[in-house]
Amino acid sequence: MHIAQGIVKTINVNKMVRAGCKVKIWIADWFAQLNNKMGGDLKKIQTVGRYMIEIWKAAGMNLDGVEFLWSSEEINRRAHEYWPIVMDIARKNNVKRITRCCQIMGRSDQDDLTAAQIFYPCMQCADIFFLKASIYRTIAFHDMLPGFKEGQEKMSKSDPSSAIFMEDDEAQVNVKIKQAFCPPKIVEGNPCLEYIKYIVFPWFGRTFTSMDELISDYETGALHPADVKPALAKAINEILQPVRDHFNNNNEAKVLLNTVKKYRVTS
After folding, report:
1. Tens digits of per-residue pLDDT, 164-216?
2. Alpha-carbon gap, residue 66 to 186, rounded angstroms
3. Sign of CA dihedral 255, 51, 64, 77
4. Neighbours of 146 (CB within 10 A)
C-alpha cells in the first residue's frame, strides 16, 4: 500500500470523524475480482482487504468513527436494492460512454475489456446511492501525490522507487527520498515539497501559513534540497514507525503481512 492510501486516507478520515461524521469505507472485494486483481481469487483479495484495514488501524485511523463494509457481503444482503440501481444506470448509458470510465479500473478504453470490466463502472456508480450516506459527493477531486522521479505526475506501484510504501523500512525511506527529484529554488512539480504539504504538515498539525513560509524560503534558496530531504525522511519515518511496530509485534498482523507478500499482484 502506498503512503497516500495509508496515511493521507487516515488523515482525511480522522478529520471527518473529528467533525462528527460516521465514515463508511467500502472494501470493494467483488470489484477487485471483476478487475482480475490477484488473478480473480476472491479469498486472496479478501486477505488483502483485511491487511489494508490492519494498516489503517496501525496508522492511527479512529476506527470508533468508521464502518467497514465489504461489497460482497452488502450486495448479497441487499441484492433486491442493489441490482435495480445497477440495471437503471446500465439502461441509461451506452457502451461507448461506459468504456470511457475505464480509467477508474486502471484501464484504457482501447484495452480488450472483459464483460465484467464493462459492468464495473455501472456498479461503482450504483455504490454512491446504495450506501445511503447522508453526505456524499457524486464526483470528487483531490490532489494526487507525484512520483519521486522528474516528470512523474503520480506514484506508480509498478515502480517501487517512485513512492513511499507503508511496508518500507527506515533505510528504504531514506534512500528513496535522498534520490528523489528536488530541484533547488523550484517549487512547482517538486515531489518532496508535495509530501511535506499533504502528509507532513497535516500529520503534525502545521498550518498552510507554515507551508507558504517554507515555499518562500525554498524559492529564494534560503532552504536547500540538502536541508529538505533529511527533514522529510525523518518525518516520514516517524509517521510510519507505529505501523512497523504493529506488524513486528502483533503475530496476527505479521502473518497477514507475510501472506500478502507472497501473492503475485495481477493488473
Report:
1. 999 999 999 999 999 999 999 999 989 999 999 999 999 987 655 678 888 88
2. 39
3. negative
4. 23
Greatest pairwise CA separation for the chain in angstroms:
63
Select from 88, 50, 89 the least CA-distant residue to 70.
50
Q: Which three cell numbers stand for residue 167?
A: 511496508
- Annotated domain spans of the chain: 3-130, 160-262
Measuring CA to CA, which residue among 66, 61, 64, 44 is closest to residue 6?
Answer: 61
pTM: 0.86
DSSP three-state, residue 262: helix
Torsion sign, CA atoms 61, 230, 217, 162: negative
CATH of 160-262, one of 1.10.730.10, 3.40.50.2300, 3.40.50.970, 1.10.240.10: 1.10.240.10
